[in-house]
Amino acid sequence: MKIYFSANHRYLERDLALYREIIGVIQREGHVLVNNWVETANNRWPQEMQYYDWASVCIAARGGIDDADVLLAEASGETGFGVGFETAYALSKGKKIGILIRKTEMDNSYTSGLDRKEIYVCGYERTVLADVLRETLVLLETRL
Amino acid sequence: MIVHLTSSRANVVENIETLREIVGLINESGHVLARDWIEPYYHVAVKNAAKDVDPAQVYKLNVDAIERADVMIIEASFKSFGSGFQVATAMSKKKPTLMLIKDDAKNESIFSQGLNDPLVQRHAYNAHNLKSLVINFLEENNINSKDLRFNFVIDRQLYNYIRWKSFKSRKTKAEIVRELLLKDMDEV
């Protein structure tokens, strides 16, 4: 599958290891990551953030989702506007959607209320993320 | 018009006076809310007087409200998944959207600065310009619900085609153009 990965970029330094682990599993399972913005952002942010051309970022994000079969989002913690925007955009384009969220945050967030017929929301614990993600990818490929 | 007013729920208590002012401006302008959720949620959050609505129900109510609304106003000073989700949903349904961000907001979305859709307006507000921003947006988009007219200029080739199509399908030229527009709206 061609997969667009969506996640909050504001705390990239803190979350970089998590995002790299997710991207690593996607690639090891034989899927194609559309638009690896994580590494691009890691090279440029946060020092350039205030000067960034956000219109181009938005266009690239939408283009990436258009090209993908699946949107996979990490939506734990202080999830931002961009992840919500990209999720709804993917939904409007008929893409398969998987949302990863830490188990402790499953019951009390906007993401926990998303329509489960359209979106697969999966709780995970950090220690077993890779296993949960592999199962999620199989489900997205077959069930949805 | 029907207006969907929304905001991050996490920010309702802190921002209640602004939200009340926007609700007042919508009502004074003769429009109605698609979903009157702010006061009930405020009371749930502050007084713990009733059980909060289930997140699945919140999601469904929001999507229904966007569907029903003619326009959307979102107080987006506090970035959230729900705000982004609702803005993209409104854009996909071609609903004009006003994003209002406090001019001293510290936790706004930088991603939203890149939205360049002609139906989305993004403005910084303060106590002095909030009223004019809301009123101007409502006036700009207050399209009469009766049928509208406009001049339609086409060349001979298009005219001959539409005349032939009208004859063949036994429909008026206006009906044919309306059907084409509806088909295009479904495909976008």
Question: What are the defining features of this structure?
Answer:
heterodimer; A: 144 residues; alpha/beta; Rossmann fold; 5-stranded parallel beta sheet; 5 strands; B: 188 residues; 2 domains; 7 helices; elongated
The profile of the biggest β sheet of chain A is:
5 strands, parallel
- Can you tell me the CATH class of chain A? Alpha Beta
- How does the overall form of chain A come out from the CA principal axes? globular
Largest sheet of chain B: 5 strands, parallel
Give the SSE order of chain B as H and E letters: EHEHHEHEEHHH
Beta-strand content estimate of chain B: 5-15%
Low-confidence stretches of chain B: none
Coarse structural class of chain B: alpha/beta
Largest interface: chains, residues each = A-B, 33 and 30 residues
Number of strands of chain B: 5
Helix percent band of chain B: 40-55%
Intertermini distance of chain A: 13 Å
Helical/strand content category of chain A: alpha/beta
Subunit organisation of the chains: heterodimer
| Number of separate structural domains of chain B | 2
Rg of chain A, rounded, reads: 14 Å
Short note summarizing the structure:
The complex is a heterodimer of chains A (144) and B (188). Chain A has helices at residues 12-28, 37-44, 54-67, 81-92, 129-142, and strands spanning 2-7, 32-34, 70-74, 96-102, 119-124.
Describe the structure.
The complex is a heterodimer of chains A (144) and B (188). Chain A has a single domain (2-142), classed as Rossmann fold, CATH 3.40.50.450. Chain A has helices at residues 12-28, 37-44, 54-67, 81-92, 129-142, and strands spanning 2-7, 32-34, 70-74, 96-102, 119-124. Chain A has 144 residues and is of the alpha/beta class. In chain B, strands 2-1-3-4-5 form a 5-stranded parallel β-sheet, sandwiched between helices. Chain B has 2 domains: 2-140, Rossmann fold (3-Layer(aba) Sandwich); 156-187, no CATH class. In chain B, helix 1 links the parallel strand 1 (2-7) and strand 2 (32-33). The longest helix of chain B is centred in the C-terminal third of the chain and has 15 residues, at 173-187. Chain B has 7 helices and 5 strands. Chain B is of the alpha/beta class. Chain B is elongated and about 65 Å long. In chain B, helix 1 packs across helix 5. Chain B starts with a strand and ends with a helix. The A-B interface holds A 10, 49, 52-59, 75, 79-89, 91-92, 107-115 and B 9, 54-60, 76, 79-89, 91-92, 109-116.
